[in-house]
Amino acid sequence: MFESPGISYATLWPVLLVLGVACTGVVVEAFAPRAARFNTQVSLALVGLAAALAGTVMVGAGPHLGVATGEGALIVDGPGVFSQGLVLLVSLGGVALFAERRLDNGVSAFAGQAAALPGTPAERTASQRGLEHTEVYPLMMFAVGGMMLFCVSGDLLMLFVALEVLSLPLYLLTGLARRRRLLSQEAALKYFLLGAFSSGIFLYGLALVYGFAGSMSLSEIGAAVAEDGSSPLLLLGIGLMAVGLLFKTGAVPFHSWTPDVYQGAPTPVTAWMSAATKIAAFAAMLRLFYVAFGAEGDIWRPAIGVVAVLTMLLGASFAVVQTDVKRMLGYSAVAHTGFLLTGLLGVQNDSFGSTQAVLFYLTAYGFATLGAFAIVSMVRGPNGEAGSLDRWAGLGRTNPWVAGTFAVFLLSMAGLPLTAGFIGKWGVFAVALGAGQWPVVAVAIGSSVIAVFFYVRVIMLMFFTDAHDDAATVVTPSYATTVVIALSAVATVLLGVIPGPVLSLLVDAGGFIG
Amino acid sequence: MLTILVLIPFAGALVTAVMPARPKMWAFGFAVATLIAGIVTMFTAPDTDRVWMEPLGVHWALEMDGFGKLMVMLTVVLVPLVMVAAVKDHDKRWYAWALALEAFALLTFLAGDLFLFYIAFEATLIPAYFMIGQNGGPGRAKAAVKFLMFQLGGGLVLLGALIGFYVVSSQAGPPSYLISDLAQLDIGTTAERWIFVAMFIAFAVKAPLFPVHTWLADTTEQATPATSVLLVCILDKIGTFAMIRLCLGLVPEASAWATPVVVVLALISIVYGAVLAIGQDDLLRLIGLTSLSHFGLITLGIFAATREGLVGSILYMVNHGVATAAMFLIAGFLITRKGTASISSMRGLEKATPVLAGTFLIAGLATAGLPGLSQFVSEILVLISAFDYHWLVGVIAVSAIVLAAIYVLWAYQRIFTGPPQLSKQPVADLNRREIGVITPLLVALLFFGFVPGPLISAAQPVVAPLVDVIQAGE
Known about the structure:
The structure holds two protein chains of two kinds. By secondary structure, chain A is mainly α.
């Protein structure tokens, strides 16, 4: 007899709500008149996310924390709920940036009609009729739902399903830029092809791990690994699954899509995606490595260490030579992945361990990157955004507030004290050093120095250089974008000066539950 | 109370940045308020200790011992003077940054918690970076980046030491970053040596010491003299301050272990800096390089680790601050008049500007350690300890005095003596504002030259326990 799995709706309703909002969005798209769609979709998304965020907080504070549900497929524990909340927070900001229509003369950053090929009469018609892709909001909601599931997946199949649910909308969103559409579509294709590849590899690894353990559940795999860890089946499985996750986070040598996608995607998508995907992917990676493969730490730690070293060095070095601000931030995201991987090398303990360090780093990085890309979308020339760094020269004189805020985000990414980035960096280095990984920490410190160079160069360009003739101008955005930037900046500084509450929250949240 | 001392300049920076009317007056007002608060806290200031970031064991702990008092006084006195001196060629942003710099510098001198120290140590770089980059010579942007890269490089290495302390501390129990707690820790020899190396690199960059000094000359050449005063006389002192407070205080055995290397580096700094200074044509660069030589002497005194050496170094830090500030400011006045810092383009200014020439000579001779001027006492103490350490070290260190006399007198000769230059505009002597800035500094130089007692008695109690710890370790 088939028995339906018991599902704890008390802990899962925020996820279901977001997915429900996504489905409702599709229905709205089908039936609502064109004029009403934008407002309906935006308010639906905002309200849905806000309600889900409130729900996540309730779940986190409630009595049901730490239960396995759906026959162990979903495990709602402290770190999982924390990362879900973080994804939701960043996504709220993301919706606000998606809805920005003042920067580009009343149209959004998305293509009027993606089906109309670039440069054809169809495209012209679309833009004359003022068409708009309001499908982006349901797409985004699906991705958010996938990310939230990714954070709490307790078995391999759920992990794979969530990975696909979060990835597919991202491929689409990447290709929807209104301007420089060919670049955007190329980026989307690249992202999709490489992403599909990595999903395949991930699935292959998953199958091998299942073959080894005879179970999909992470905790049962963990028990099997503890019993017999040297099976080649398992090692190959760990390796292949790691490839899939490392691809999502943009770690070297699976990073090559990052700068292209960051540059090609519409800037609001880049802003939201760079923060949210990283949070979800690292939450899942932490869970997978600690719960399922924790007993085999001696085998995967050196490998992850090598990847971390390469990622930090290459990310930071390539960022130095970039001339486009979005590409530079893309490579900087690669370098940050390396720092996060350094944090993964530490050990889990009940006070300040790897989980806490990585999650704090993700919080700090999430706000900084969201704010930084939001500012990138405001700095424009006659042909849309001014990506080229030369055109940012002298911005500190013409727009001290914008440049100053951007400098705050950059300094946070560089890890200077009194910003959230510093505490984050301190944390991941401390846990790695505590686990005796001093060579990796030494490289991390070295690449931090390289990384500082390109952040500082942008600050120098903005504040100490005179503007050229074709200097970019700052377009005043709507309140939504302003609020996102302001809140990100406040969060960046506040988490740097008084990180205590968030750190305590993380410590109280405890570790992953098997 | 100590918290207030730090908060006043910080609030001042914010107020100055947003104040539309007369921001410079506001900035000066806040600097004076800090000066007053500094004097008050000299006499009555209970230590502060509050938990700040609990999971990391970080405390907001401020305390002021004799050494801290000296450094705080130096800071709070110099900042308002520099502000008056700098009024002509800086805008309000510079003033705001200067106050921020003061706040963070005070925080480093007061910090009783290593994490807090580190935060302030790194945070000083942001105002300094903007001060260098926004005002000064044509190569200032490059100099600012070079400055920041060196300093941050050092700072990140220090971060390694900071984390090392956390790891050791959390293995011993609940983590704590209080310097007093860290001093109790039992660190293994290897770990202690690594921590020492990381800390020393950071402080050597800051101080600066050969071979990580190269940012100094470029920075002082490109930055305005007022910025240089804040950098060299206050900020760089954090480096030597931390060598005493943290290297000797926390890892004394490793400090003793590294002393031979440090002494050699210090000797190279002393001689190399002085020799380079002799050949310099750019006046600001020259003064920057003399500081390299002087910081070498300070470091030598610290690591020779005798009572005299440490007292001498602490005194030297104060006196060097005063004398070099005077030098930079006078050079600044000279450069405003001539429009260039090139020594070869100045000649025979003595007749036209007797006051300027006189003050230059006094400040210059003070840096060269002429008896009767304050630096002499500290230099003698350092040299005694150098001879104590090894006679050869003493001999090499003494050469610094000869070289110092050469670069000061030769610079004076080239700028002020000789037939006056025929120029279209006559060069004016110091005006009242400028004299007002220089007088307190010169008075301090003369006063502490004849009455070094107060400084020595402030430094003595700090030194005694350190020397005991070190000698016990040997």
